[in-house]
Amino acid sequence: MLNNILNGFANLAQPTNLLIFLAASLVGFLGGALPGISGTMMIILFLPLSYALDPIPAFIILTTVYSASVFSGLICAILFRTPGTPEAVATVFDGYPMSQKGRTGEALSIGITSSVVGGLIGSFFLLTLTPLLSKFALSFSSPEYFSLAVMGLTVVVSLGSKDLLKGFLGVLFGLFLGTVGMDGLTGTDRFTFGNPNLLGGIGLIPVIIGLFAVSEVLRKSQQKEKTEILTKKVETKISIKLLSHHWMVVAKSALIGTVIGILPGIGATTAAMVSYSEAVRSSKHPELFGTGIPEGIIAPETANNAAALGTMIPLISLGIPGGASTAVLIGAFVMHGLQPGPMLIKENPSLVYTIFVTMLMLNFVILLLSKPFIKLFTKIMTVPYHILAGFIIVFSIIGTYAVNNSIMDIWLMLLFGLLGFYFDKIHIPLATVILGLVLGPLTEKEFRRSLEMSGGSLSIFFEHPICVVLLLIALLSLALSIYSTLKKKANSKTDR
Amino acid sequence: MSLDLIFASISSVFSLIFFIISMTNPARKSTYVGPNGWPNFILGTMFILSIWYLIRTLVRKKIEKKEKESVDEHPKKFSLLSYENRHWILLCVLVVYTIVLPYLGFFLSSVGLFIYVAYSLGTNSIRKTILFSVISMALVVMLFGKVLSISLPRGIGIIETITSFLY
């Protein structure tokens, strides 16, 4: 294995490959910072280019643009309340409020540092434990996936702690949105009303961009006075010390991200949401989440980068995509006459370990790129809002339209923009809607599959040890969260 | 408080209507939980919670009304041009933008949108804004249309011919 790793370094160090790697890092970093331009889209855009190259430089480009875009998705999430990539949606919840308090540089620094740490931990697992982790991934089946999704959903109590009823309504609305489209198991149309554009369901990107970005522009249009956010002059440090007080959150998030990343079909977006959920659940002050605290950025950013690398493990070792981006990468492998799976590491160790080394070294390149970009992006906050708003809306429309080349998506974006505007007014946490939308389809699909596996018996959920443990954790944390929320409300009433 | 009432009412009606649609959906029979099982559960729960929310809002409104009985409140005059309602105008402009987008193409539509957004949010110089929007939108369409090869609407007829020089 050591020989293969050194060989990987040697391949990457070749001048052409190194140049390609650095260029792809820059392009991926900038692309991911633009709203709606996801990692999957970046891979698709560069796929035709990669066809003309040899496998090693081709996969250096594809894996680098994807991983770099996951890193930079947090930039727009923090600056403009618009996640640059779906993986950064949970970063909006605390990143944007922190930026609004004038701590933009600090938010970006924490985000990038967390991303790098998550990426390094993910790279370590990728380099050393791929065969072992792939065996662990195989032990997960539908009951385990279902219980994982339920565990993620139970955090709605903490996210909606100010008003439980509104929190539940938000998550139910998100769950409902996830049911629109064709049912995957039976092919039945649900709530499409004959519109072919809705057969694929309601996309995550129009909803996210609408709920967060468009609603924010609508909100700002109501303001009488031009408000200026005084950006505090913060030394933009990229330092592990930023995370030293939150090492527990970092460790848990990296583990959650890696575990979810290696599970086929889930992806980094779910990892970020579940990690954020877990950080809220285990915090001594869950009510502070959503107000702009470091843990609210550390948890999702560490997890999504660990997961982004984790998704490569089932792809390379089993030939099963870990998420949408790796599904596209399978196409790239086939284009080059390669078959991802158990034989790939044996037959092409040079290529596989070059990919692993590339993803490891990207973390260091991001550290180098980040400091000048953080200063640049912090300065963007000084641009007058009447200019920024135009760009936000235009980029949002491009990002939304580019997914399916469909005007329908823009309509959906506007609809959710209006909904997000009013949800904010009546204090329905937008995080709960996204929680439902991201985890709902997974919950339903795996629950129904579990019942098919067991012949309709619910006992299957009690026969799998991992499933039992996860469901117990979910149940206990739900009960404790409801109890502590109600207790706090009762105490505050008696204090009055 | 009135927003809560409106939302609670809409939520109740919405969940009830979709629950009925889901119940009457001629879904293919599945052995266990069919395609309508999960939506029925969600919408049913949503309906119950919406009614609870509606009742709670009405009760709170009653209590608030009693407390405010002595205070004379002059009803606010509705004005579309007031700051509170400006978001409706912006939304209408976005709707018009989406309608004309396939016809005028991305470049022309976005220039118009950019100018309006800057004007409505308080730009100091409209001439500079027009110039800035034309140049910046040209750069944006070249970046996305030509460099990143993202297919953007070109418009129809002569507009399509002209925009093909840009992207």
What does this structure look like?
The complex is a heterodimer of chains A (496) and B (167). By secondary structure, chain A is mainly α. Helices cover 74% and strands 1% of the residues of chain A. Chain A has a two-stranded antiparallel sheet. In chain A, helix 3 packs parallel to helix 15 (324-335). The model of chain A has no long low-confidence stretch (mean pLDDT 84). Chain B has 167 residues and is mainly α. Chain B has helices at 2-23, 37-67, 86-120, 126-147, 158-163. In chain B, helix 1 runs antiparallel to helix 2 (37-67) and helix 3 crosses helix 4. The longest helix of chain B has 35 residues, at 86-120. The radius of gyration of chain B is 25 Å and the shape is flat. In chain B, 29% of the residues are buried. The model of chain B has no long low-confidence stretch (mean pLDDT 84). The chains are: A mainly alpha (496), B mainly alpha (167). At the A-B interface, helix 9, helix 10, helix 18, helix 19 and helix 20 of A face helix 1, helix 2, helix 3 and helix 4 of B.
Q: Mean pLDDT of chain B, nearest integer?
A: 84
Number of helices of chain A: 22
Percent of sequence in beta strands of chain B = under 5%
Main sheet characteristics of chain A: 2 strands, antiparallel
- Pattern of helices and strands of chain B: HHHHH
Q: Name the quaternary structure.
A: heterodimer
Instruction: Indicate the structural class of chain A.
Output: mainly alpha
